[in-house]
Structure formats: C-alpha cells, structure tokens
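Sharing a chain and its predicted structure for anyone who wants a worked example. Both blocks are below, sequence first, tokens second.
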Amino acid sequence: MSGAAPPFIERRSPRDPRIDIMRGAALIMIYVDHIPLNTLSRLTMRQYGFADAAELFVLLAGFSAMIAFGRAFERGGPRHGIWQTTYRASVIYLTQAGLLLATLGVVTVWRFYLPIGHPLFSPVIPEAYADVTRGLALMALPDYLDILPLYVVLLTCFPLVYYGMRRRPVVTLTVSGLLWLLAWTQPWLNLPNMMDVTGRGWSFAPLSWQFLFVIGAALAVTLGPAGSLLPQPRWAAVLCWVYLAWAYVLHRWADVLQSWDDIIDAGLLDKTHLAPLRLLDVLALVYLLLGSRRVLAWSRHAILRPLEACGRHSLAIYALGSMMALFGRLEFGSFGPTAPMQVGVNLAGLAVMPLVALALDRRKERRRAR
C-alpha cells in the first residue's frame, strides 16, 4: 500500500448503512446502560457476552475515521487532513466540557429541590472549583462522561494511523497490538483520573483502546466500497459463532460455572485495559455482521433509517443521550426505578434520540439543496 493513494477512500460513497446502523444501535445501548437498574439493559450487548456497546462504538469510530478523515488527507494533503482531525478533536473536547458543566449545573439544581435517595443513582461529579478545572483539563473524569476524552486522544493521533495504514498496514497493526498488550500487562500505563478512587486512571486507557480503533481503521481498508462483504470462510464463521456462544453461556450462568471468578481475577474481562476476552467478543460479532449477505440486505430496510440517522450524527446523539441518561438516573434516584418510571425514561430516550437524528438529517439535506 505504498506509492499511489489507497483507492478505498475515493470509492467509498455513499456511506455504508451497516456502519451507521451499528453505531446508532451502540448509542441507544449506551443510553440504556448508563441508567443503573434499568430493566431494558437486559437486552443490551453486555448481557449476552463479554463486550458491551463501548467496544462496538470505538471499533466503528476507527472505521468511520479512516473513511472520513482519510478522504480529507487524500484530497487536501497532510495539512488539510491534520486540520480536519484537529478541528474534530476540538469539537469533541468542547462537547465534553459542555457535558461536564451541564451535568454539574443540573445536579446542583436537582439536589436543591429533590433528594437523591440511593447513592447508586447519584452522579459522581466534580463539585469544587479545582475539580471542575481538572475536569476541563481531562484529569478528573466523572462516571458516564469518560469516553469522549478517549476520542480526543485517538483523533489527535489519527494522522499516524492513516499514514501507517496507507504505507505499512501490517506493521501498524502489529505495533498497535504490542502497545495494547503492554498496557494490558502493565496497568499503570494509563492517564490519571483524580476522580477514580481506585487509582486506575481513565476508564478507557488510551494505550489499550487505541488497538480497537486501529483495527476499525484496518477494517475500513479491508472491506472496500460501501456494501462490500468481508471474506468469510465457513470455518472462520463457525469459530466466531462458537466463541460468542461460549461467551453467552459463561456470562448467563456465571454462578453455576465456577470459572467466572477465575476469569475476572486473571484480568481477562478488565474493561479499562480492553482485556482479551472483550476484544475477541466484539471482533467476532463485527466480523459476522460485516460478512453476512443477510445483514447487508436488512441494512437497506426503511425501518432502520432512524438508527442509521443516529449513527450519522453520533456526537450530537451521544451528547443528547448523555443528558437524557443523567435525568433518568436522577429520576430513578429521587422517585425510584418503578415500572412507570422505567417506561417513561426508556420511551423518552428511544423516541427523542432517533427523532432528533432524523431532524438533523433533514436540516443537512436542506443545506445541500441550497
């Protein structure tokens, strides 16, 4: 992949609906999972295997970055590409700062009028001025507001990923994998988080999670034009299905199968450093989805357009979902996770997020028509 520019960048139009649909589904699951004791969370990824929606979202972020920003590098050269990635990283940082300050304001006002009865639902936020300053410096990351800082780091480093994938993809993947292995075996290789009482640092250690992002970029190169299928020999598909079935059985019957605690003690499920079982889980799932003709056909169905719209406007929908999940946690904390509250909180999120995404789609189309 040296010399001429990689052809996949120019050929990849229109967008692949499968990627946006999966990103949209990940955003919905993140919203649901960010509300403790939410009954609907029984249907999300984390209940059926080792990985959860965060792994899926980061992998697809690498895929989408290689397409969008790879095109910027190809058409405008290094200066334009670096400008585009820096601008996007800045927008993500400002979104993180806005969510942090909005969370602080909402929780402060809520606590003034209503008690939060259960500490499980009380958002962990910086309350002192010094803590807010550290939060803005990404040195104090509250619970549920800890994934966007990872994207800031990943996008800042994206030019290295792009040129590595363009010139030496195997070497790039190997170096990325070695960094992941080093960070997993040496947990201290993480950025500090002053709000983490365990001293582990960021909930998503950048040196670990960059591997999933780089794998996503490699998938974008491998898959080719929108609507292509990953090569999927029968033996590979069978291995993936067997692994996912084993993960499901082990997860669902953890109390019966005594090996669960041993796996946790060995660090094989550690989310902070993207433990191997979690990594393999999301890779097996995405490999099956992107190699399936049936999934490709389903992705063109009109009923999935709201999810696709959520994926296309992932940053805005993530921010919206984060604030709605905050209100959901506060409502559960003050009034209890009763059945009416469950229905109201979940219906609100599942309705508002797709509707806003479709509205953003329409606004974008009107701008293009001018």
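Comments welcome. The chain has one domain: 8-369.
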